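pinned: reference chain
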Amino acid sequence: MRQIDFFYFFGSAYACLSARRIRPIVDAAGVSIRWRPFNVRPLMQENNVALRTEARKVEYIWRDIERRSALHGLAYVRHPIWPTDPELLHNKVGMLAASEGWGEDFTLASCKAWFLKGFALGDRACLEHVLAQFGKDATATIAEAQSARIAGLYEENTEEARRHGVFGSPSFVTDDGEMFWGDDRLEEAIAWAA
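pinned: its structure tokens
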């Protein structure tokens, strides 16, 4: 079976759109998926991308997210709290979840909490809300997510994304090393992988 790597950052609204859309598309195409949380921030800095200083672009992004949600029949309430996850805590818990085989479910629950419930990613209340859905103790899970093992896995994903030329989230990398960037390239990436 062909495989695609889904590199994403908790805090990327476009990544949440892709996370909410990807499963039926890869299943229909007969492609397997690896959920790869990574730190997009240093890669954006290396490519001189600074969304926090681009007010007009950020305004456009939220309107685009609203349109794309409607296009794909995805619930949308209002633009989520952003910027978010300043300490990368939600990302590290996502890395822990991915390493243990429940990353996809954690990612989807996190996107719903962020997009639809108004939680800020990385906040303790958000993590408690999401982790409770999986019967996880928030204190123990957060402590494990802050371990050297998880930090190492997260850095490995980030370095692999860098090697593939990834500069934004979401990005998709096929078995043959072809890289596609953005939710609007999701279908094209999966078709290439297939």
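why pinned: The beta strands are 2-8, 31-37, 171-174, 179-181. DSSP finds nine helices and four strands in the chain.
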